[in-house]
Amino acid sequence: MRILFLSPSGGLGGAERCLLDLIASIRTYDPGTDVGVLAGADGPLLPRVESLGAQVVRLPLTQGLAEVGDSGLAGGGARVALSTARRLSLGGLQATRYAARLRAAMRRFAPSVVHSNGIKMHLLAAVAGSPAPLVWHLRDFIGQRALVPLGLKALQWRADASIAISRAVSQDAQRVLPRVAVHVVYDAIDTDAFAPTGNVAALDALSGSPAAPDGCLRVGLVATYARWKGHQVLLEAARHLASRADASHVVFYIVGGPIYETTASQYAPGELRALASRLGVTDRIRFVPFQARVEDAFRALDVIVHASSRREPFGRTIAEGMATGKPVIVANGSGAAELFADPRDAVGVPEGDPEALAEAVRRLALDPAERARLGRAGRATALERFSRARLAREVFEVYAAAGARPRRTPGAAV
Questions:
Q1: CATH superfamily of 203-385
Q2: For the whole model, what pTM was predicted?
């Protein structure tokens, strides 16, 4: 078998790290499978792919295609809407030209299956016409996007199967894409890398701050700077705790950065620092830049926070935090709610509720025994549910279903 993955990004966000886990699982499950990754941008993903013995095919997106997207439209106002409309109109011709190049690259690789790992590649591969069964890996709630559902729905006949990363994502996809078979396959993580023991990041030094005082409790949000990942919720929770004497030893860390090029979808670093200043919590917040070895950052924290302010498709940081044996506080809804059992192996709080988050942090800050218990239980859950061992087998079952589907003429004209 020859599998060609399509990645719009060369960065190391959640989708790309999940792709690496899948490739690693495939290499163990069936070492004879040839794997390639066609990437729309350069970046740290590509050497990681090559280290797993997979081939890299570079096919850079134009700047216009890289930047265009609809994730900034919700609540973005007329200026953002007009800017997005311009980019879409300019991107149409670029997309047609890129699809022709993509079609040629896919044919050169001669895959048994084409597996797209991002919305832009779902659309571009469908426009191009895949020479082999096409599988869309759905990592978003496409139904809540402004424009994406229109494109995917129009092109759904080109997809032979899809993978949803949670039941919540599957239910959303089935409403938007009734003609596409949707299979639920949970993401996996490297539970050996994300383990309680190992290297520990020097978060204070990385943030450019003096060493935090002895006895402090380090509470961290590890995420890209996507606007829905809950950075504002965390900062507001820090404000709620600022006057609490019993939480004076809590120090908050925001670990990550803006790694994608899609316009209006992410915070700029200066925005979050300015927000911290307006909320009066600058002295309680430390900003740590993106870390390639994110597992080292997890081990440096005492409590992991997942604070997404809108529906979460999966919540990789939840599984990673549990695997490293840390207590995890989860914005409890949608796909995230499928990953844990409150309060057995993590603590749930309502989405977008900084007061509830602050109270959960305060309770854990005062109860080291409960933190230790949650860490042990979370590690056990991660080993049972999120290890790489079962991932390739489940994905290969989807490939078999996609291959059995009658296909339209591959490589039809754009």
A1: Glycogen Phosphorylase B; (3.40.50.2000)
A2: 0.90
